[in-house]
Amino acid sequence: FGLPVLTDIHERDQCKIVAETVDILQIPAFLCRQTDLLVAAAETGRIINVKKGQFLAPWDMKNVVAKITGAGNERVLVTDRGTSFGYNTLVSDMRGLPIMARDTKKPVVFDATHSVQQPGGQGGSSGGQREFVPVLARAAVSIGVAAVFIESHEQPERAPSDGPNMVPLSKMEALLSDLKAFDQVAKSRPVEI
Fold it and tell me: Over 80: is that where the pLDDT of 68 sits?
């Protein structure tokens, strides 16, 4: 299809092998401070997408990016996927998106579906509030993010994971059309902080 392929890596030894078959190596949020993993990923030369840990302030992402660029790789994306707020809840502080862009000098991605996740919210698994995905995605695009990450499934309630925060595939075309319109306005009138 000619589309770039992105996948998570979890261990240093996976970096070189996985980089042979994908375009973008993604560092999961809970591993964003693992220096050995960041350096090994950087050394592959692939684009690195680092998800901001839910425990990390947006301005601290400059330190994460510095580990990657210090290893010789300038091809970095930073992704916000919400911040822990009490138990079983994530919130999205939209101020963090331009702060990460300003402080890291890298493109910022907003993960709209994981941002509505409720970790452990169903007792034995994570819950979510998918009805807020369009709201948060519109807000992030209006700020001027470089990209939006959205998980979708034909039947989210039957998805093997993350179903409660996924957007039904039948609603994706309308959502993407809306986001494209918001993006055109945002990019025509950028806001600097």
Answer: yes
d(CA 143, CA 186): 6
Joined together, the tokens standing for residue 107 give 């493109």
Rounded CA-CA distance 185/187 in Å is: 6
Global pTM reads: 0.94
Distance set, CA 26 to CA 14, 48, 53, 130, 187 (Å):
12, 6, 13, 23, 26
CA distance 187 to 133: 21
Return the pLDDT at 121: 84
117 CB-side CA count, 13 A: 20
Q: Is the separation of the CB atoms in 66 and 160 below 8 Å?
A: no
Beta partners for 173?
Answer: none
Identify residue 163 by its one-letter amino acid code: G
* 6-188 to CATH, choices 3.40.640.10, 3.40.50.720, 3.40.220.10, 3.20.20.70: 3.20.20.70
